[in-house]
Specification:
176 residues; Peptide Deformylase; 4 helices; 30% strand
């Protein structure tokens, strides 16, 4: 199993390199990333980008729930994102919190697009374009940020949203 890199490791703030060839090394990395993601329990992870395991390549995986299968994204590009302003207003009231396996016990809300049109390669090298909505779109945007060296805490602060630290099962607003 791979070790998850935590802040302030510099790799988490760097733009990654594209994958030039999907060979056995890349396929093995993806298998190890999946094993690492599945093993996360407190908290359970729903996505993992290559920089989070110390590799500066444009790869991430998502597994939105325990029962869902893992999806692999290589050299992904967001072609279009759509924000439904009505749902954005409703979401502000709900205030969804994001966390990150590389920033343990810290949470914050981030406004994300409701849907994203993503172009990426799968593990077989096939180029795919697909529209992702809802929770999957949120995870994808979080992981895409990792590939650009951006952490959710930065997004949260840019949007003037508070950050919270988890202590003894309680969320306590952090002073910034």
């Amino acid at each position: 199993m791979l070790k998850i890199v935590n802040t302030p490791n510099k790799i988490l703030n760097q733009v990654v390199e594209p994958v030039k060839k999907i060979d056995d090394r890349i396929k093995n990395l993806i298998i190890e990333m999946e094993e690492t993601l599945i093993a996360q329990e407190d908290p359970q992870g729903v996505g993992l980008a290559a920089p989070q395991v110390g590799v500066d390549l444009a790869i991430f995986i998502i597994k939105p729930s325990l029962k869902s299968s893992t999806q692999v994204f290589i050299n992904p590009k967001i072609l279009k994102s759509v924000t439904d302003h009505q749902s954005l207003i409703a979401d502000k009231e709900k205030s969804k919190l994001e966390g990150c396996l590389s920033i343990p016990r810290i949470w914050g809300s981030v406004e994300r697009a409701e849907s994203v049109l993503l172009e990426y390669q799968n593990i077989d090298g096939k180029t795919i374009q697909h529209l992702f909505k809802g929770f999957k779109a949120t995870i994808i945007q979080h992981e895409m940020d990792h590939l650009q060296g951006v952490l959710f805490t930065q997004r949260s602060l840019e949007q003037n949203k508070p950050l919270y630290e988890e202590k003894d099962g309680e969320l306590i607003k952090k002073k910034i």
